[in-house]
Design brief:
Blueprint (H helix, E strand, L loop, with lengths): L8 H9 L5 E4 L5 H9 L5 E4 L7 H10 L3 E3 L1 H6 L11 H6 L4 E3 L4 H4 L3 H12 L3 H13 L5 H9 L2
Parallel strand pairs: 1-2, 2-3, 3-4
């Protein structure tokens, strides 16, 4: 909170000029407006976190249509008290809305939990199905910055 994406507009424009792919940390502790700013001002290709998006139906529709990836980090969301407990997390609701969500770790040395631990604990807390887990993993490959050929190769193994 207190650090809206618009503070980084010049930096992201310069990064894009140099051919970098832009991403933004938005919508974890900050409001849905931060996600809008990241999309509209920073021209990001991915939103790190984005869990506050469900508070804005127009934003959910935009994220769905554009397939903007949302890298959700459930264990750090709990540590930062974005949600009181893992059972309250909105990842399943995001999945049900067909958003391009995946599970990631967020500075595991600080927040604890690498990707596997995030997946295992979240699956248990939210009663995610095997199909839900498969979708999360496929989304992570679809949203990666790998070549399309490599993405297809990895997704075929899932």
């Amino acid at each position: 909170t207190g650090n809206p994406p618009k503070k980084y507009e010049k930096l992201c424009k310069k990064a894009i000029e140099y051919g970098f792919i832009t991403v933004a940390h938005a919508g974890e502790e900050g409001p849905p407006e931060y996600i809008w700013e990241a999309l509209n001002l920073l021209n990001v290709k991915r939103i790190d976190h984005g869990v506050q998006c469900l508070k804005d139906e127009k934003l959910v529709e935009k994220l769905f249509k554009s397939k903007i990836p949302l890298t959700v980090c459930p264990l750090s969301n709990i540590k930062l008290q974005v949600f009181n407990k893992l059972e309250d997390h909105n990842l399943k609701k995001m999945l049900d809305k067909k958003l391009m969500v995946m599970v990631n770790s967020d500075d595991p040395a600080y927040f604890g939990g690498y990707i596997n631990e995030n997946l295992i604990k979240t699956q248990s807390a939210l009663k995610l199905s095997m199909e839900d887990i498969k979708t999360l993993i496929i989304n992570s490959f679809k949203s990666s910055f790998l070549s399309e050929e490599k993405k297809r190769e990895w997704i075929s193994k899932i």
